[in-house]
Structures are given as C-alpha cells and as structure tokens.
Amino acid sequence: MLASSSLLKQVTEHSLALQLRLDIRNYLINYLAKRGPELQSFVTASLIQLLCRLTKFGWFDDDRFRDLVKESTNFLSQATSDHYAIGLKILNQLVSEMNQ
C-alpha cells in the first residue's frame, strides 16, 4: 500500500522515463492477474488507481498504454469472479481517471 501510494505521487508530480512507466504498468497488470484475488480490497484499489494514472499520463506517449482496455477485458473472461471484479474495477477507475 505504501509503495503504491508513493509511486502514485511520483507518477503524478514527476515525469518518469517512458520505459520505466511501461515496466511499472506491465508489472501491475501481471501482479493483479496473479495476486489480485488474494489482496485486500483497499490494496487492489490503490494498485488499480496507480495503473490507471500511469495509463492516463502515457496515453499519448505510447500506444501500449491504450492496450489497458483490452487487457482489462481479459480479466473479464477469466474463470473466477474475483478476476472479473478486478477487470470491472480497472475499467471503472480508468473512466474516472480520464474524466479528471
């Protein structure tokens, strides 16, 4: 949780290198896919907020950031309801983040 909120502050206030942002993004997606169902809901929400903030700031920098919509639909097609819920939370947070 602390790492997520610290990274959120860094992403918001400072310009990070493109490759670093992509690496963090990919790590978060993989982490949520593997460990997301085991996490407390507030930790999942914090990681999703960081993921969506990275996506928002990188939207025009690299097309790979735009793949989050497709990748979140992969969560929706998983067998577990926990993965489905994570996919919905990602899409919901992405819309909220883009509207700010």
UniProtKB/TrEMBL annotation:
Keywords: Cytoplasm, Nucleus, Protein transport, Transport
Domain of life where this protein originates: Eukaryota
MF terms in GO: nuclear export signal receptor activity
Location of this chain's protein in the cell: Cytoplasm; Nucleus
Family annotation (InterPro entries): ARM-like (IPR011989), ARM-type_fold (IPR016024), XPO4/7-like (IPR044189)
A GO term from the CC aspect: cytoplasm
One BP term from GO: protein export from nucleus
Main location as per UniProt: cytoplasm
Family statement: Belongs to the exportin family.
Protein name in the entry: Importin N-terminal domain-containing protein
Organism expressing this protein natively: Citrus clementina (Clementine)
High-level lineage: Eukaryota, Viridiplantae, Streptophyta, Embryophyta, Tracheophyta
